[in-house]
Amino acid sequence: MKFCEQCAAKLRNDAEFCYQCGAPCEDIRDRVLYEDRLAAWRREEKNRRRESSGGSFGKIVLTALLVMLLVALMIYAWISPARRSYDLAVNGETAAAQQLYAERVTGSAFESFLLRCMIPRGAEAVLSAYEEGGLSYQDASARLKTLSVLEAPLTNAGRTAERLESLYKSGQAYSLAQSYEAEGDYRSAMLSYRMVTDTDGSYSDASQKAAEAEEKYRSSVLASVGVPETEKEYREAVRILEDALAVLPGDETLSAAQTTLRQTFAVRIKAAAVPKAQEYIAEGYYKQAIDLVNRALVYNEQDMDLKTLLRTATADYEDFVRSQVNIYLGNGDKEGALSLLERVRADLPGDAVFEQLYQTVTAS
Prior knowledge:
single chain; mainly alpha; 2 strands
């Protein structure tokens, strides 16, 4: 049998380390030495336990003090001026809240800190009350604005106020959209529904209603355009389509209708202009023929038939005027020739033949 030199524990003869304290082992044959070392080890162990017990007690005391301090802070926070001003603002007593804030909170870093910790939750509560119908927009807006003032310079309540305004506008837009749709004003209904979908996702059917209003608006536009027969009707149809395309840019149906409208009216105006212009030319009403063809060219800018007819009417008009000038000059009536040339120059400003004749007669 041998004993541990450190703790005097009994060990097997072949043990290399103490199973109790872990110290390397050597034989201790002297029983007195063994007892002395055992007593010393027990004293050390007792002191160690006493110190450990004292440290635990100290930790317990410190923890208790911290808990008491925390409770005291919580109680103060509950009855503090910051809490009272917060409660006043959330409950709608905005003037009293701002007065208390100015008198008891402003200038106190701790009070301001407490207030800013409370405000985000209060702002959300106000917004929830509005969404649930417990507060009007005006009441909720006033409370959030007051909370924004109390929270400055932070912006949690300010952002919540912006969300409130967005929700309010969305609700107004949704109601207006329904009214417009009932009245048959599908353009305004579509735009109002779109505003709702852009600003608020709580109206799940707004997107579908916007699409339905868009289709009804498109159909009403196409129905109002019809098949214009006069230039006045055509210009009005063009205006309607241009307004619709400003609202629905790139809409393929409306763009196709616009192209068809222009092509159809161009054909119609040409078909009406050509025989009438030919009739005017045959009867000697050259100016009327020229005006009619020019109006048709507005809608058929590259039409070769109309351009040829215009050249014919212009050439016939020039020949007619040239012959009339010669008659006036043959009768010695220079003033009559100049008067005629002044009229036709006004009819066809810049016409080279008329300008040349005028210069010739003036110089003669």
